[in-house]
Amino acid sequence: MHDGIHVEQAGIPAVTICTDIFVETSRAMASMWGAQDYPIIFTQHPISQLTREQLRSRVQTMLEQIVTIVTGNPGAR
Amino acid sequence: MQVKDVRHVEWDDVVEAIEKCYELGWTDGLPVVPPTVARVEAFIEYGRRAPDEVLGTLPERRRAITVAKVAANAVMAGCKPEYFPVLLAATEAMLDPAFNLIGPSSSQGSAAVLTMVNGPIARELQINCRNNLFGPGHRANATIGRAIRLILMNACASIPGLFDRSIIGESAKYSYCIAENETETHWLPLHVERGFDREQSTVTVFACWSPRQLRCDADPRATLDCAADVASTFGTSLCTSDSVGDTSQLVRQGQMVLTVAGASTFWRDWSKQDVRAYLHPRIGRSVADLKRVKVLSGAITPDDAQHRVLFVPEPDDILIVSAGGPEGTGYRCAVILSELPKVASAAVTKAITIPSIS
Amino acid sequence: MALATRQQYLLVDPTTQPLNTMFHAAPRLHDLTNKRLGLIDDSKENAQELLEELTAVLRQRFGIANVVYHRKPSASKPAAPEVIQELAQTCDYVIVAIGS
Q1: Contacts of residue C74 in chain B, CB cutoff 8 Å?
Q2: Does residue C40 contact residue A22 with C-beta atoms inside 8 Å?
Q3: Does this model's pTM top 0.90?
Q4: In tens digits, what is the pLDDT along chain A, a chain of 77 residues?
Q5: Complex ipTM over 0.85
Q6: Chain C: partners with 3+ C-beta pairs within 8 Å
């Protein structure tokens, strides 16, 4: 998730998607970068064996969070 | 000399001090030598470097690793001051971009760091290169290897469970340091092959798994066939969907180290180059095999048995080290596989600076 | 009595602390409609597929003006600074998967 932080520092919003086994690690890492509240979308582990169908429904659950992160406004269009 | 970051502690006896180090979370699970300012300064004096000199940085964890931090961990490991130059060079090597420390020190795949010492310092410090090569009993091996892990855990924040996400771990993470037996072999030493003078002492670091021993006593060719077979087994770090299974990149294969005991007579007709040239094309599996265990995706087609995927990028990515008890046992080898593809972490060799007495 | 026999020592802390750093989040977008999307694929298994599905659903919902896709050679190494710069200059927002 350093990549997301670097993109933000370069000037545009970045959404980072991580699997949920890395919650503690990513938050600790973000704190180290002074970005304690850097938003990360955590998705259920594992991702690697999901079929396309399953990925398709998984990404549906991420949409709201993406909008919120990129616009700073929940429910924005 | 002004060493920073000191803690004031009190104790009745040294065992209490050892307990204190446990409480502070500074150990690898084994008791450490308390890193008193006096002991740490003695190391820094020996090394003739400034305590605040930055050996390298780990940008992802926002860390700078100084001479003083390496010294503190070296003391804790039970090192002698004379081992300190080896550790300084090893730390520089681990912080080299080609080693990419963030990869092996955080990966779920559990990398240990093999530290190999070449040149005169190996003999001076009596770093074991012979019998019981990877086993206990030699202070230099045990403590230099241990210091490497303490440096990683303490100075580089490779904290198990938090930033070190190894799932299974490796027993070699406790300590993994050897020297090459340069005197009882006709082979060129590793550091000379990698471009250093014979009389220059060096250290090579390699992020890898524990050694897999093999024994095949028929003849050199049969021994290498066994080594190639061991290196080509399913389920190793070289044979994953992230490494050779990822065909989007040209080079996803990994390096390996082969330690060979008794290199003189058993291998009389073979140079290290000969060994590499023989091994390299033999380390790999067919596409059919890789599809069978889902390292490669897709249904198995009739042609797949004929097509091979090699696991090591180039013959030079097989690092060969003459080490282990030499008496008539040339067939005793150990195969040590990289934990990550070469593009993610490669072996790095650095010169050891011996402090000059002025 | 015990106090008189306790020895006092200074121990050098073998751990390091992270260097202080300031993080400044980028300005937010007003909306996601027809934006230029950047993607960083960290090369882990299914990252590409996940990003493809995400792109499809974002395109359907909001429209996408353009996609810039970068696959890292290794999940273990950060994206090169040039890649970050290029994305910042040619995209409106970026999605990174599967970061860890």
Answers
A1: 100, 103, 340-341, 343-344
A2: no
A3: no
A4: 789 999 999 999 999 999 988 888 888 888 888 888 788 999 998 888 899 999 999 999 999 999 999 998 765 54
A5: yes
A6: A, B
